[in-house]
Amino acid sequence: MSGSAIQVSSTNDDGDEIQNLLARLGIVTQTSSRKQIIQSTPRLLGNVENFLLVYLNSSIPDNSLLIKFRSLVNYLKIFDDVDDCIAFINNISNEKIIFIVSDALGDPVVSRIQDLQQLFAIYVLCKTAKQVDNWSTNQPKIRGIYMNINEILEQIKNAIENDEENSLTFTHTLTTANTKSEPSFLKNQLIKEILLDSDEMNEAKNELIDFCRAEYVDNIEQLTYIQQFEDEYRKENILEFFRKEKFLYKMLNKGFRIPEVDILFKLRLFIQNLHHYIISSSNNSSIKTLYRSQFVTNDELDTLKTCVDDGLIAFSNFFIASINYPEENLTSSFRNNQQEDKGEEIIFQIDVSNSNNFMSIDNQILVTFGLVTRITHIEKDKNEKTIIHLKTVSSDDRQLERIIEPMRKETRAPHPSLRIVKLFMELEQYSQAAQLGQVLLADLPNAPKDPLLALARIYHSLGTTLYEKEEYDQALDVIKKSHELYVRFLPEDAPQLSPTWNNMGSIYLRQGKTDLALEHHGKALAIQLKSPSPDLPSIISYSNNIGGVYLKLERYDEALVHFKRALQIEEQTLPTNHPELAGTYHRIGGVYFRQNNYEKALEYYDKTLEIELASLPDNHPTVAVTYHNRGTAFEGLGKLEEAVESAEKAVEQLNIFWCMDEDESYAFVLEY
């Protein structure tokens, strides 16, 4: 070993201190390793429908054609460059793409995109009959080759209507007591509860209309329908506005499919009214069974089979069913888009003898959203088609309540919209939570105290999540919003504000702004030290954070002052073998090592090791870190034999760690 021995930090970084603090304050849950950030690609900005239309042609369409396009699909992208078009298509994930391409540009494009899952249909526009003959219709995504654009538009209209009518979104969960509930099932059930929650509806209609006008700007046909809705909508004529060609039908199908909660929340007035209209109009006591044909993938069918007798199936959206057994298959235009080698058409047979969740309409049955059922059995009919037998489940079903109640408690909030954000936070779907938080801040500028304070807490939690994702600029912006909301009702030195000051300090440190980091950590600490009821765990965390900044600045004496303040409190409040006490001993040992005070460093490393050996698993990697650092302290003292012995112990400990079962893991970061 050389005199410039490498020191290894026994903790990841000061971010762990923030995580500990937040866990103690009940803002996030503490874990042994950093939470996995579940990324979910948000919908294409501005698209509130399931479909988007991509048009590739060397000539730009005239305005009359653009109006026709947008009467079918609101979101339209026009390209005259092949590579730009392909790049755009490749970046789409949540929308179904209808692609119109001219014959001249089609050949180099179609072969490169035809297997993409997001591609719904391809239509080729030709100028001559000879060009039509040159195209093969064997490719399943090519729905037709035409010389007339109006023929293509008619085909697109029929394809969209068939897909919207025949697409049904469902989620599942097992009901076994020790089985973890499926997040998608929990999410959809709680979204239903929140959407139906009693809410201040005085402004809901205007909010809905403003949102729809903004999304359908310059769409002449849909803007006409929106104006009609504003002028004529009443609860009694609600079905008139739930038609295939109209904006609400299209938006609800998109909102329930993903789900897109911001869309659903903006439309909550219509959703509530339609749901209650169906329930109040349910006078079909003679109807005992409903039927619904559905194409499912092989994976979905396997999932349904696992739920027999031990699972719940919930249908997310409003849907059409029949009282007659379907003798015919789904329409060919719908089936053309399904990969039949990867799935099959099935029939849901639903026992609704104890349900009022449906109504008769135009010789069909309209079923309300969020219907929960239990699979009783699965069989084949005479044509070998799979029949899934379902029975409706009441909202107060014991198994359903047992599954939902824990998450319901975690997402309580003084405003329905805040419940949705908390729900996404609990499910670790942070992108959606952040997006909704921005929407809510715009929607609740003059809200009363309780909702705004709840939003402030949610923003604080979002900020810590963005910090973990190392998105420091955005994290700082969100934490500042939290702070701004708090100070509407609290003084700057209120103890409740110390976590926001502290977390801003941590972000500034990550940005290399050490002066600002010290200032904000210092404010957090000063607030707690002056408080008549100081929070000791917070003082420990803030002191360690300040010590960490001074350590980074090589101001070692000042670092020791703050680390020792934390140690003094820990020694009085924590058990003698507590791992956090070991962490503080290790930090102090590191400071003494950097001051070349190897005796003191070794003293604190020995205290660290004693606690770790008594409190941590044998294969815990931080024990190896401590052995390593003891070795460097022995080296500094010139005790090479002890240094080698300690280094060998570190290697031995690492060997134990790397021999762990592959399913086990620790957050283990070596910092040089």
Q: How would you describe this structure to a colleague?
A:
The protein is of the alpha/beta class. It has 4 domains: 224 residues, Tetratricopeptide repeat domain (Serine Threonine Protein Phosphatase 5, Tetratricopeptide repeat), CATH 1.25.40; 116 residues, Response regulator (Rossmann fold), CATH 3.40.50.2300; 83 residues; 115 residues, Toxin ADP-ribosyltransferase, Chain A, domain 1 (Alpha-Beta Complex). It is built from 27 helices and 14 strands. The strands form 3 sheets. A 6-stranded mixed β-sheet has the order 6-8-13-14-10-7. The protein has a 5-stranded parallel β-sheet with strand order 2-1-3-4-5, sandwiched between helices. A 3-stranded antiparallel β-sheet has the order 9-12-11, with no helix packed on it. Helix 3 packs parallel to helix 4. The longest helix has 20 residues. The protein is elongated, with a radius of gyration of 31 Å. The two termini are 15 Å apart. The relative contact order is 0.09. The N terminus and C terminus are likely disordered.
